[in-house]
Structures are given as C-alpha cells and as structure tokens.
Write a structure and sequence with these properties.
Layout: E1 3-6, E2 9-14, E3 17-22, E4 27-30, H1 33-41, E5 47-48, H2 49-60, H3 62-74, E6 78-80, E7 102-106, H4 140-154, E8 159-165, H5 173-190, E9 193-200, H6 207-215, E10 219-223, H7 228-234, H8 244-257, E11 264-269, H9 276-287, E12 291-296, H10 310-331, H11 339-349, E13 364-367, E14 372-374, E15 386-389, E16 393-394, H12 396-406, H13 420-423, H14 428-435, H15 446-466
Parallel strand pairs: 7-8, 7-13, 8-9, 9-10, 10-11, 11-12
Antiparallel strand pairs: 1-5, 1-6, 2-3, 3-4, 13-14, 14-15, 15-16
Helix pairs in contact: 1-2, 2-3, 4-5, 10-15, 11-15
C-alpha cells in the first residue's frame, strides 16, 4: 500500500474557485472540489492512498477519488512517499556563458539633485562618488568599449538592450548621443535587434533632448515621487529647493511629444510619502504617465524615512486596491498603469521559479564610468562587487562563484517559504545595506512579499477565469527591468 503526500503548495480562492500554487514549479492551476478535498485531506501530512480514497469515497465515489489522485500525481501536486531519503539535489550552476541580455551603462555618477534617501549619494552609499577614484563621467571611448563588450557577451542572442543610467543620466548627454549612434551601427553590422531605455530625474529634459529621445525611440523612465508636497519632501536640489515645479512641465512636454514609446514613472516610497493611491492618481491622470511603478526606499534600516511595521501594512493595503483596479480594467481589456501588479502576474504567467532574485550578474550587468563591470547599476563602481571590465570581459570564475553562493538553495531562511519562486530571497543591494552581505535574504520584507504575492496570485487566477485571453499578452514580454 503506497503512502502519498501533498507536494509543497499554497492554496488560494479567486472568482469563487479554489486554486493551487505549486511552489517548486511556480505553476498555478484551478482545482475541482474532489482535488481540493484530497489536498486538504493530506494537509496534516502523508497518508496511505487507500485511506484517503476511503475517507472521501462517500462524497465523490471511489473511482472519482482514485482518478483525481492520479491526475494530481501527474501534475506533481502529489507524490508517493519514498522509503529511502532522496539524494540531495545539487544547485544548478550554468556550465557555459549565459548570454548578456541587458547592460546598464552608468554614463555618470554625478547628479544635480540631492535626494535625501538616494542609495548612491546618501548616508548608505557604497561608492564614494565625490572624492573616489572613479571618473565622474564616462568617456566616449569607454562607452564604445562597453557597447562592443555587450555584443560580445550577448553571443548568439538576436537581441540586446542598453539602459542609460546615472547619477542623472542626461548630465552626460553628449556621450549618450554618440553611444546610441555607435551601438546602432554595430547592431546593424552584426544583424542584431537593439533596444534602448533611459532613466532620468527630468530636470534636463530640454527640447533638443526630447527630440533625440523621440527620433531614436528610446524608452524613458522618470524618477518622480508624486504631487508637489511629496516630490519636494526628498527630491530637492543641492540648495534645498524642491524640484516639482521644474520637472512637471518638462515631463508633460516629453509625454506629449514622445509617442513612439510609453513613458513610465518610478516612485520611491518612504515612511513620510506612503500615499500610494494619490501618487498614482496624480501621475497618471494629471501628469499623464502611461504606467507607474513603486518601490520601498532602499536603506540600512536606521534612517528616519525607512518603512517598517504598520508602514508595510499600509503599503500592502493600497497596493491591493490598485491591483484590483487593474483587475477590473484588464477584465474589460482596458489599460491600467500599475506596473507592479502587471510585472508580477507576468512572471506568474510564465511559471517563473527563480533560483536568483533577478538577472544581476547573469543576464544583466551594470557598467561603471571607468568600464568596470558590476553585478548591476546599484553596485556600479564597487570593487567588492566587480565581475570584470569591458575590455577584458566577464571573469567566469568570479561569476560562477557568485552564482554558487547566491543560489536560493543556500538561503536557508527561504527554504520553507511558499513565495520563494517569485522572490528568491530579495534584492542583493537591499541585503548588502541591511545585513552587509549580498547572500542574505531580505528578511525584513518577508511578510510584505508573501502578502503581495498572494494578491497577485488572486488577481492572476481571477483573470484566468474572467478574461483568459488577456493573459496571452504576457507570452513574449521580457521580464527584466531596471529600478
């Protein structure tokens, strides 16, 4: 007589139906009443198969229960309890170079704003951008070398993506322009499709800059925190003056003229600026952004703007409201600009089960102003987090060691968390600031991550019932984004 057990899963209800999220595989599927009863019968632990059939036969019949058990076994929602312990599963380490998909080019490490919470220039910065050894602006020569590096590391991949970043990116607009032209020529020569994006604080969006962005179809993300009172709380110039009145008209002009790519906003949330709903409404309805993404402020946890406790609960409540607004719009095939939910349900649709929290150091790298290659843009210029140089390429020994140390299987705190396929331990930069080690799980976010993942699971599940065709738009959408 075989003994069966439920595999690791998380049960939710959406649109009046039970769904099961299989943790190891990242698969979400609806279950009928019989399957739901079987899984609940095994919730306390393994049981003999015949015992489960006998316990549920009066409700569903022997044949139906047995058949459903077989179906759940095929879906790997159930398994036979082995008499011998399974051999430990080795962490997967790629045996050949992984094609580089995205390169974040930090064309400058300088900024004309003095945002209090900034991870590059505030109290928690990890690189000295004022008196350090790195050049303040990337040279045209280094930028060209970075482009050549990117195409080499992309290998046979038909596409590549460059994101221009800072500091304030547009402070080095002359090099940016020349780099776009050079990269386009090289892409044509190599027969590759090349895509560009740029992040800016919008202070330098002059007419000629906007002309260039439009002509070159460059996607733009604007760092902005909302209406005047919230924007000017932290996002100020070096003299302390708020930036809203300067950037708002420039952004509106950009949105009005740049029709080739949707313009997105990226908002940093702090303890003092947690009015998510009003920020979203202002940025979409009054400014005109196509989409808005929110991120809690990155910091060591000791700053007065750090979010904690009730702040996370408030943030989750407002995220949930926006997520269900998104759901209702999606059910009518209408656009809604809350990118946080769109990105997460996109991952759920693809059945993402991540060994690493993001592409940093794998399919994405950041390039510092001197050409050093780092894990991502947030570590640009940090010798501790260096993977190589654009002239020499990625050091595969360093990369392999990074992958080995940061695999989800090495994060013991994550081993029993049902949300790990989407989170995989959290941001390396956040872990470095909070715990001094990129290998640590971002434990202060755990309840928030589980709560938000459950919301997204329910939104996805309800969409799959009410408007399944909507989900097909995620089939070919790239997942990696820069923040």
């Amino acid at each position: 007589m075989s003994t069966i057990a439920a595999r690791e899963h998380h049960r939710i209800e959406a649109a009046g139906h039970p769904f099961v999220y299989l943790v190891p595989s990242g698969a979400l599927f609806e279950v009928d009443e019989t399957a739901d009863a079987i899984l609940q019968a095994l919730s306390a632990g393994p049981r003999p198969r015949d015992e489960v059939v006998g316990a549920l036969a009066a409700r569903f019949g022997d044949a139906a229960v047995s058949e459903t058990i077989g179906e759940l076994m095929q879906l790997q929602a159930l398994g036979v309890v082995a008499t011998q312990p399974a051999a430990p599963r080795p962490a997967f380490i790629p045996l050949k170079p992984i094609p580089l998909q995205s390169m974040v080019l930090n064309v400058t490490n300088q900024c004309n704003l003095n945002c209090t919470y900034c991870y590059e220039y505030g109290d928690d910065k990890i690189v000295d951008t004022s008196n350090g050894t790195k050049p303040k602006f990337m040279s045209e020569v280094t930028a060209r070398e970075a482009v050549d590096f990117m195409f080499t590391e992309a290998g046979d991949s038909p596409t590549a993506h460059i994101t221009f970043f800072g500091g304030e990116t547009l402070l080095n607009f002359p090099v940016l322009k020349k780099t776009v032209a050079y990269a386009r020529r090289r892409a044509t020569e190599l027969g590759k499709h090349l895509d560009f994006s740029l992040t800016t604080n919008a202070t330098l969006l002059k007419p000629d800059v906007i002309d260039f962005l439009v002509e070159n179809r460059i996607a733009v993300t604007v760092s902005i925190d909302g209406p005047p009172k919230l924007q000017d709380k932290f996002r100020v110039f070096h003299n302390g003056k708020g930036s809203y009145d300067i950037v708002a008209p420039k952004i509106k002009e950009l949105i009005g003229r740049h029709r080739t790519r949707p313009i997105g906003a990226r908002v940093t949330l702090t303890k003092q600026t947690l009015d998510v709903k009003s920020i979203y409404t202002h940025l979409t309805e009054e400014i005109g952004f196509h989409e808005v993404g929110f991120a809690p402020v990155t910091n060591s946890g000791e700053r007065d703007f750090a979010i904690s406790g009730q702040g996370f609960d408030d943030m989750l409540g407002q995220f949930t409201e926006l997520a269900y607004e998104f759901l209702e719009a999606a059910c009518q095939n209408k656009h809604h600009g809350f990118s946080n939910v769109r990105e997460t349900i996109g991952e759920l649709h693809k059945g993402v089960s991540k060994a690493y929290p993001c592409g940093a150091g794998v399919g994405l790298v950041g390039v510092a102003t001197d050409g050093d290659v780092n894990l991502c843009h947030r570590f640009a210029g940090s010798d501790e987090h260096k993977l190589g140089h654009v002239r020499d390429g990625i050091d595969r020994t360093i990369q392999a060691e990074f992958l080995r140390r940061h695999h989800i299987d090495n994060k013991t705190d994550c081993a029993t968390c049902w949300a790990r396929p989407v989170c995989s331990g959290g941001c390396y930069h956040e872990a470095h600031l909070r715990f001094g080690d990129t290998t640590s799980a971002t434990l202060h976010y755990c309840d928030w991550i589980r709560g938000w993942t459950e919301v997204c699971l329910k939104v996805y599940a309800e969409l799959s019932v009410r408007n399944p065709d909507y989900l097909r738009r995620f089939d070919d959408e790239p997942a990696e984004r820069v923040a």
